[in-house]
Amino acid sequence: MQRQYRLREKRQFQQVRGEGRCWAHPLCVLCVAPNHLPYSRFGFSVSRRIGGAVVRNRVKRQLREIVRRRMAHIKPGYDVVLIARRPIVRATHEERVNAVETLLRRARLWMSEPMEEEVSC
Question: Residue 116 has what pLDDT?
Answer without folding.
Answer: 64
